[in-house]
């Protein structure tokens, strides 16, 4: 079975699209997903399945809509893809350290998309980058490094220029999800 991470867009943000994680886990187990775990309240789900990403995206989206009345974009990555996202960060340790020192909040984020943006839309989005807000697009993943804050940033506010719905996670969340996936792999190998 493949270990997947599903990331839901706009769950439990500002009092909207409220879903209790225990209820979400129960709901997704009814789809036949195995070892369903969630991390914090913002719609980070780890599970195992033999089904394809495309089928899982549709099934999870529809189940959440049916059970909770919430229509949320579902972005899925395998545990291996998540590990690649982490290992392929385009920013140097020095850049990240400098940003960490000055940023209000988390400095490093990744916007995860269901599909890769077009070159035209990528160029539109990247035109908002500057010396305090850096970005690199790698396929379906958009790395973002902020020296001030993601809040009210030009890059953060213009992700819509990619014309593909994105869900953004900070680096600590991605690292925790990767760690959880490693724990599941370790348990399977025992």
UniProtKB/TrEMBL annotation:
Q: Name one Pfam family in it.
A: DUF1697
UniProt cross-references to InterPro entries, sorted A to Z: DUF1697
| Position of the signal peptide | none
Superkingdom of the source species:
Bacteria
Q: What is this protein called?
A: DUF1697 domain-containing protein
Which organism is the protein's source? Answer: Lysinibacillus zambalensis
């Amino acid at each position: 079975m493949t270990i997947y991470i599903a990331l839901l867009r706009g769950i439990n943000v500002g009092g909207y699209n409220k879903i209790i994680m225990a209820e979400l886990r129960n709901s997704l187990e009814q789809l036949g997903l195995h070892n369903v775990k969630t991390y914090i309240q913002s719609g980070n789900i780890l599970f195992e399945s033999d089904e394809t990403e495309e089928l899982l995206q549709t099934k999870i989206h529809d189940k959440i809509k049916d059970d909770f009345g919430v229509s949320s974009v579902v972005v899925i990555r395998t545990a291996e893809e998540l590990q690649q996202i982490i290992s392929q960060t385009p920013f140097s340790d020095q850049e990240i350290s400098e940003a960490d020192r000055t940023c209000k909040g988390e400095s490093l984020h990744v916007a995860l998309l269901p599909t890769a943006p077009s070159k035209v839309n990528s160029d539109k989005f990247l035109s908002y980058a500057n010396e305090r807000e850096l970005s690199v697009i790698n396929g379906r993943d958009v790395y973002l490094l902020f020296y001030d804050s993601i809040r009210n940033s030009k890059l953060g506010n213009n992700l819509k220029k990619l014309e593909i719905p994105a869900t953004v996670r900070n680096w600590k969340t991605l690292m925790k999800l990767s760690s959880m996936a490693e724990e599941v792999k370790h348990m399977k190998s025992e």
